[in-house]
């Protein structure tokens, strides 16, 4: 590593040390101390607790199910965007990214209005005469799956779309000229070449689902805890900070181990290689290829209209929570009800007349802009150094840079795990750092050239 490369990386490394590594070290320290004395009691309690191990098993199971569902939904959408005309492709991907403009909390809250007993789905089914009483679509495992898949869907679509964009269309034409039917050409040419993107999306979605908190808490069953919720209960209800820290460290250790195990798949998202080598390194199960060939052969005659219908329907569902939120803002009811019983501007007047809300909005804008600017200032040189530099362990530095964006890291940081005062930061500085570690990893995920660093 040259001095120039080191200087380019230094600001980001200092920020990581201050805002991520040191706080995580304090969490580890807390997990190993009780009453000011060194103790492994918290770890012994966590590892011997059948309840916690059951929660951990449930978390793994739900993360795996969410990953499979998300990939199943995301692949046709990414294929539609990648094979559409250029003018449509960009618009489709822009609409896929639109939900990121709304917080996870708001999107999860909107699903309560859509899936609730008096929500849009149940009312539509009752109006159609398909049901006599509302279906339990929310506050259970089904509600958690719907919300998590909806939120994680763009995270799977982007890497799959990127992998598909790198496939030369001439390969499909060559297969057709050699007599391969469309379904067979798709299963033997297109699908294997897009598999690195599928692997990258699977890794990202699974790792993110492991640390999910807000959506399962809002849409899931009251006792259907995931690990992140168990940590929150230890902190906010039981005030057992050492045990919560041990649980958080265990969760982060598992996610970190998975990141290291899947690092080539994760990094493949950024387009490390464009040859067929990734397909050999990330083999596709033969049974999946055979199933894809069968399905593609059956759907080939109606593929184009079916793909457009599917894509438009999925985009509608993807944007539905945002539309619901906008409509609820004009509701005249003082309670959550959708469709609204009437229309009113009362909530807008209440917002603009409340100084606390205005102050919070202004503060959010200042902190977000400052965080984005700071992340851009230190993330761009770091990304440039990784992209242009020639030194060992660049991939590990890349993984370190994007690690804070993982939800498991947030569960393990001092703010939610120890206590608000444990961060020992002033309110404004703490908010700025929080935005900084949110924006900077996203920047490093897509640094110049769209290529990820080799080991």
Automatic annotation (TrEMBL):
Residues 56-262 form the ABC transmembrane type-1 domain. The chain crosses the membrane at residues 7-32, 52-80, 92-114, 142-164, 185-214, 244-262, 307-336, 356-386. Keywords: Cell membrane, Membrane, Transmembrane, Transmembrane helix, Transport. It is a multi-pass membrane protein. It is found in: Cell membrane. GO terms for cellular component: plasma membrane. GO terms for biological process: transmembrane transport. It comes from the Bacteria. The keyword Glycoprotein does not apply. Its main location: membrane. Belongs to the binding-protein-dependent transport system permease family. CysTW subfamily. This is ABC transmembrane type-1 domain-containing protein. It comes from Teichococcus deserti. The lineage of its organism: Bacteria, Pseudomonadati, Pseudomonadota, Alphaproteobacteria, Acetobacterales.
């Amino acid at each position: 590593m040259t001095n120039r490369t080191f200087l380019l990386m230094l600001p980001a490394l200092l920020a990581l040390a201050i805002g991520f590594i040191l706080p995580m070290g304090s969490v580890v320290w807390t997990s190993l101390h009780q009453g000011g004395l060194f103790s492994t009691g918290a770890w012994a309690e966590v590892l011997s607790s059948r309840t916690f191990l059951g929660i951990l098993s449930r978390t793994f199971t739900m993360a795996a199910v969410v990953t499979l569902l998300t990939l199943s939904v995301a692949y046709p959408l990414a294929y539609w965007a990648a094979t559409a005309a250029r003018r449509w492709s960009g618009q489709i991907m822009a609409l896929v990214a639109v939900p990121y403009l709304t917080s996870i909390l708001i999107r999860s809250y909107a699903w309560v209005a859509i899936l609730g007993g008096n929500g849009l789905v149940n009312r539509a089914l009752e109006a159609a005469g398909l049901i006599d009483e509302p279906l339990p679509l929310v506050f259970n495992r089904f509600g958690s799956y719907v919300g998590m898949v909806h939120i994680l869907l763009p995270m799977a679509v982007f890497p799959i779309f990127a992998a598909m964009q790198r496939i030369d269309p001439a390969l499909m034409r060559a297969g057709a000229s050699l007599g391969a039917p469309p379904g067979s050409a798709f299963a033997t040419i297109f699908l294997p070449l897009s598999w690195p993107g599928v692997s990258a999306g699977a890794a990202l979605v699974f790792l993110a689902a492991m640390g999910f908190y807000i959506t399962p808490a809002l849409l899931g069953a009251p006792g259907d805890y995931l690990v992140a919720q168990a940590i929150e209960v230890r902190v906010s209800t039981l005030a057992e900070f050492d045990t919560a820290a041990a649980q958080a460290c265990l969760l982060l250790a598992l996610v970190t181990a998975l990141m290291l195990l899947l690092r080539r798949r994760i990094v493949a998202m950024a387009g490390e290689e464009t040859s067929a080598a990734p397909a050999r390194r990330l083999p596709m199960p033969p049974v999946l290829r055979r199933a894809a060939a069968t399905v593609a052969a059956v759907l080939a005659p109606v593929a184009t209209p079916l793909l457009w219908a599917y894509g438009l329907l999925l985009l509608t569902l993807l944007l539905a929570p945002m539309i619901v939120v906008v409509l609820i803002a004009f509701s005249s009811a003082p309670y959550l009800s959708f469709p609204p019983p009437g229309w009113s501007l009362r909530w807008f007047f209440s917002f603009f007349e409340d100084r606390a809300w205005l102050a919070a909005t202004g503060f959010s804008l200042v902190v977000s802009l400052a965080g984005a600017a700071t992340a851009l200032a230190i993330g761009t040189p770091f990304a440039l150094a990784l992209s242009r530099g020639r030194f060992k362990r660049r991939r590990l530095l890349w993984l370190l840079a994007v690690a804070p964006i993982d939800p498991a890291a947030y569960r393990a940081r001092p703010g939610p795990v120890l206590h608000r005062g444990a961060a020992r930061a002033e309110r404004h500085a703490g908010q700025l750092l929080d935005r900084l570690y949110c924006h900077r990893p996203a920047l490093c995920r897509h640094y110049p050239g769209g290529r990820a660093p080799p080991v």
